[in-house]
Fold this sequence. Notes:
- The chain is an all-alpha fold and 168 residues long.
- Helix content is 79%, strand content 0%.
- The longest helix is centred in the middle third of the chain and has 36 residues, at 63-98.
Amino acid sequence: xxxxxxxxxxxxxxxxxxxFVALAGVAAADPGPRGGMHGPGGPQGASIExxxxxxKDQLALNADQQKMFDSAVAQNRAAREAGRTExxxxxxxxxxxxxKPEPDLAxxxxxxxxxxxxxxxxxxxxxxxxxxxxxxxxxxxKQVVRDHLVQRMERHDAWREKARARFG
Length: 168
């Protein structure tokens, strides 16, 4: 293999790595109430919005709360779509740069950083909507959400202990 071929493959591998890092950062900015063990709520259990959505049937929401719930769900969907659009924008920017003889990876990183910041702002806005809804809950409704979160955390702790015992 010639030095020029080796240099070209090394450069391609470096650019592919940069693309992966840029897209991974934007993918992490994807908003949405997935929750779960390692979703937006973090490793300690479900996110606030996922917890509320999960126990919705047990909450017996009144008409105003139902409107707030529907609005929060719509806001999450819109934020998730905006996150996907930002991912496409970063990917397109990376493709455009990689088509150049000397790609400007700093420009792509700046676009990815802006997309990540935009996603974070949208997540915080959506979470605020869910917290406003939670603020309207009765004590009984809050206990339902609390009990769900406690169960999730206990399951996660048990899983973590099992993994520690198994893998050291």
